[in-house]
Write a structure and sequence with these properties.
The chain is mostly helical. It has 13 helices and two strands. The mean pLDDT is 95. Bound molecules: fe (ii) ion (2 copies). This is 1,2-phenylacetyl-CoA epoxidase subunit A. Keywords: Oxidoreductase.
Length: 317
Amino acid sequence: MTAPSPELEQQFDATVARKDRIEPRDWMPEAYRKTLVRQIAQHAHSEIIGMQPEGNWIGRAPSLRRKAILLAKVQDEAGHGLYLYSACETLGVTRDELTRMLIEGRQKYSSIFNYPTLSYADVGTIGWLVDGAAICNQVPLCRTSFGPYGRAMIRICKEESFHQRQGFELLMTMMRGTDEQRAMVQESVDRFWWPALMMFGPPDADSPNTEQSMAWGIKTHTNDALRQKFVDMSVPQATALGVTLPDPELRWNEERGHHDFGQPDWAEFMRVVKGGGPCNAQRVAHRKRAWEDGAWVREAALAFAEREAAAQQEVSA
Ligand SMILES: [Fe+2]
Ligand SMILES: [Fe+2]
């Protein structure tokens, strides 16, 4: 590869410094492109794999209303995956390649989706805490430096706030129910609280890519800053619900104007990220099966498109 002209590099740096958008047609450093492909793909995979734990409850939702809400939510996640794969494709990779990298374990997705959904309350807890954490992570990404990614995030964030509210509303309904329902909510929150905190990634000191990503305007906040924001946001919501968060170190720090809180089990996080979580193998196997089962649809769509194009050519000839 030939070295880029100094003007191109200056233009890129100036665009990032102005907090303007880099577009697919613009020159960009190869490392910037690679970082974005990795991040957007990981994000897209998370949306698609994230359909599984909740999809698990669609057939067992307790009422038609709950089923309609859950179906709509899971379908939204499929849409998020599609916007993000499209954004990623503008960087010169195909969706086929990205899917292959996922099912071959060469690209990751969020560790949270490797935990099982054991009770119906988990649908509420995922909406409240997991989509809540996703919102904290994603709102700043609406202003990320790469245009297609930022624009996809704007629409995604609007839908995520519906997800968070439907989860909170579900939990609130259960908390107003029987003792058994309240216990179910508490048990679910106890299981999901720590994995939700892990969604922001390792502590800043162990996050080697953060500095470069911030310099490029891809990330605008550090992992620890976002985690703090999420804890501060969740504590009053937990009080409103009447659930306790399973952290004995959690308390308001007057001086800092933030909550102090304990650290998740980072060894567990690393284990889950590396494929050793309770559901990693199941999630990827399920995605692989869906990909293989859908091969005929992709082949048929391609054959149809080719035939249409040939017919068009005949007409214009
Ligand atoms: Fe989503
Ligand atoms: Fe969501």
